[in-house]
Structure formats: structure tokens, C-alpha cells
Amino acid sequence: MRNFIEDYLQNPATAVAEGAAAINKKSWLEHIDDEMVWQQIASPEFRLYEEIIFSPPIEDRSRSNTYPIVA
Asked: Model pTM greater than 0.90?
């Protein structure tokens, strides 16, 4: 699974099948700490990432070619 990208570039179907099989073998869901997840969601880094993801593209903004005037 560590070489997923290289494997995917060589044979996408096999790489996806092997990745799905590797995920099904592990019981990773039992080891997730809910408190840590909520701490990560509340972090400033996550908020910044969220803002980047949900903000409209520059091309779609109404004033994309203007700059604010600073006095």
C-alpha cells in the first residue's frame, strides 16, 4: 500500500483492488480516538483548509481583477 501511486500508474485496477483488500484486513476503525478527531477539527489548520476548500475560485469572484486601496 505504500507504493500505491506507482502501482496505480502501472495498473490502476490492480492497485485499487489491492488497496481495498488492505483496508478490509485492518481494524483501523477501532483505534480511532474520537476526542483527537474533534481536536483536529477544531484546530486553526483545519479551519484554514476548510476555508480554502469551500471558497469560490478566483475566476468566479465578482471583483477578481481589483485590488483594495490602502491609504
From this structure: no
